[in-house]
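Job type: complex structure
Entries:
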Amino acid sequence: MALNQSGWRPSAPQQGEGVAATHTGNKALMLEEALIFEIGDEHTTGVDFAPGDVAGSRLGNLTRKSPIGLPGLSEPETVRHYTRLSRQNYAIDLGLFPLGSCTMKHNPRLNERMARLPGFADIHPLQPVDTVQGALGVINELAVWLIKLTGMHGVAMSPKAGAHGELCGILCIKAALEKRGEGHRKVVLVPESAHGTNPATAAFAGFTVEDIPATAEGRVDTEALEARLGPDVAAVMITNPNTCGLFERDLKRISDAVHAAGGYVYCDGANFNAIVGKVRPGDLGVDAMHINLHKTFSTPHGGGGPGSGPVVLSEALSPFGPLPFTERYADGHITLVEEESVDDRHPDSFGRMTAFHGQMGMFTRALTYILSHGADGLKQVAEDAVLNANYILRSLADTLDAPFAGSGPCMHEAIFSDAGLAAGFSTIDIAKALIDEGFHPMTMYFPLVVHGAMLVEPTETESKAGLDQFIGALRSVAERAKAGDASLKTAPHFAPRSRLDETLAARKPVLVWKEPAPVAEAAE
Amino acid sequence: MRYLPLTGHDRTDMLATIDAPHIDALFVDVPEEARLDGPIHGLPLHASEMAVERHMTRLARQNTVAGEVPFFLGAGAYRHHVPASVDHLIQRGEFLTAYTPYQPEIAQGTLQMLFEFQTQVARMLGTDVANASMYDGSTACWEAIGMARRITKRGKAILSGGLHPHYVSVAKTMAKYTGDQLETALPTLSADTDLDALIAAIDDDTSCVVVQYPDILGRIADLRPLADAAHAKKALLIAVVTEPVAMGAIVSPGEMDADIVVGEGQSIGVGLQFGGPYVGLFGCKDKYVRQMPGRLCGETKDADGRRGFVLTLSTREQHIRREKATSNICTNSGLCALAFSIHMTLLGEAGLRRLAGINHAAACRAADRLAKVPGVTLVNDSFFNEFTLDLGREARPIVRALADQGVLAGVSLGRLYPGADALANGLIVAVTETSSDDDVEALATALEAALA
Amino acid sequence: MPRYFTEDHEWIDVDGDVGTVGISDYAQQQLGDIVFVDVPAAGRRFAKGDEAATVESVKAASDVYCPVAGTVVEGNAALEDEPALVNSDPEGEGWFFKLTLADTGDLEDLMDETAYEAFVAKL
């Protein structure tokens, strides 16, 4: 025969025996990437400029002479650098992201396309208002939606994120109290299960924070709260649905009591996703509530912002809202109320919280999302979010301790605790093992009222099949933790990095890159 | 509905699994009288992707797009060309749809990027360290004033008249509630900044002096005497940079011994976006790092000894410190920081220096041309890519009239300082690499006609 | 030299009218790896129970209360570079500050070592 020996001869893959470390540190598709300071240099640029003179020096004798120290990369290197980095991230596009109280839902790409229309992306905030009627129209249209969805009276659109919105609401309350001559009300009551931003915000505005206890079933202790009300209480800050994933049944009663005692009700709207279209906070007596557009209304989290935190306000608080805001005339023309017209139009405003008009790029995305869903779709959002959470709660209640399972259905998130795990095993071990299973961990150790809390929020954008996979993974990990599987203590094993030394990072903070000291040449 | 994967069949199955007769059984804790029985009245129902796109496009068309007309607005937001790869990279789902990197093992991409961003920002501002971003320049400026109070344990801040009036407004709003005392002033329509007056005003109660560089009218002043004067009284110098491209052409505030330097990073990578989202830059001297607000990313090692990054010094933050936190900031501006960092990496030192040179040269040419328009005087001796013209009559109506002719002439001081008659004739004109000589000619011609 | 403890886990050694203050081994164990300690400067005066120092682990910040009234004569500068001393030697090299006591009567309601051990055993 003529034996043709050219070419590659495939054979069945063999089992490897002990994998050696690679030369590069890469593991096939898992690619290591150096810092730009290690791969770039000060002479490289990835941008071409038109030729032309760069003469002229009217820089007030402050012309830069020394280098700044900024490395550049060519365009191909830049694209590769950031693409490689991106692959070391988990993301909602990759899988279920069960972070309780963070509402990691699908981010529709239509939102992105609309925000990039030049008519929104390429306009300046100080253009004459006649040249930006469409942009003001977006702000106005979104404002109307938020008011109607919450049953409130007005909305402040400019806050830059949820915590900024909280501050806005608290400042409205402070301004309203001062207008009434009751600036002496100094106490803000905050449930112990609250987000950390609540007490931080109240303290910033000069209030004294007092904790309200929770009942054994995970809700605010209404009687304790009512007993504490009095002439020194400015406001109550409540999260509803609360951080234990439960609806505060008594909110209307609490609001009535707070109002009767001369205070205001601030509602943390971080969890609005569970109730949008099902109940309106305005009907429960809320005076102010921020809405995280990056939670309920699907604008992307972007690895930590930008967010957007409009605040809906009751009739009592609306006159105190910040500048600027839009006003639509009967003829359809929209104007901006800024410092100039504030005395005539909005004399009680507490002032400006940020330059310009707020997170326009988030408004276009949120409005796009809202219009896509419509009133019927948003109601379905809340129903599916709550259904998915209850499905997880009931499917895992036989494996994990669910401290409030007896308190009725949960809302958009299911809470579990580390009770029943083998000695020495805790929530963190389950969380890190979930990483190896291909999931982002749930929120850990929050709220503080549950020992070793695991807060799971699937959101409405998960399919039943996706939920079943997650339930299977969490069940498997929980069973290993109950059996004392020591390998959990060193998880994750398959992520780009194993557990990181946070103590080292905090003891000797290295916050910027520094050129390594040159290695001294060996003597002799 | 396209964003909801559950089918009717799934819902029925799942309700059966959890032993609920119908969906409203899950909402029993909502008081019955408050429960809505159907979609909220008076709001439209769901719509197709095409229908939504049509609606939004119609609204977008009602705006005058900066890139389509001669355009000269600045005053805290600048139009620069952003390379296409920036927008492509920030839309990678692993960046766009990631959460704050609290699980570092699966967030090294965001964390390494933040570490690089912090280093780029610190070097640009001339500070030892920088944080992982703030909401925007105006809120970063206020946070710096609060930080100076914590460091010096004094409550009086002196704000330069050259500080952006919106930044001043934000500080005034916040100071009402923290009890800080602010000394503020209006700028004057002249070539001189108020540095000497600021130096004279510093006393033993002063926590900080806040000065913008280049300032709201575009003027550039040497900050070293101000830093020395502040330090002599144990007060801090806070410098505010609203146009970071300028750092490619002039000495940075940190190099002039400013203690805290904050900035608006919008100009690099982010775009105009009608005012937001933007990205606040925040840098300071090493010794003040534990009083800094906002998130910080730091280098460390993993269990196998490999380099990695984590969010660190988080005991400063609200989720640990609660009412004792340095700030209530939580979400910041991560994706805009990424856009800034990518654009900065594409530019590099060479590109930033060249970009800054092009901007300054274009501004010099424009200033010379516009100063030839009868009745127009150039206010500045010094400027980078933005300067102020005295039109000899109220600028605001002229800006409106020129907008009607399709020329976006700049920002009138009347818009920024309503009621300040001494400033009403001022027009701030920004000229970047995106403004052509033809654009400048169009502005000059239109101005000449309007002033005739 | 007598050593006293508070229910908030501070200890104080008293030598004449000068006391040395730190946090107990039990407290150190509860906090985990200490990453930062903020000690008061010489000359600061505290009433009994005032917040005098801060101690931080990776995920928690805790205030240290002054067990007696007095004026600080020295903060432990070594902790600035080596906060881990609080973990390795909490009741020795990891001391926080020394102060002159305003009133030795403040010591009366503090616990001695035996009483503190019994107190901790019940936690």
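Summary: Residues 334-371 of chain B form the longest helix (38 residues). The mean pLDDT of chain B is 95.
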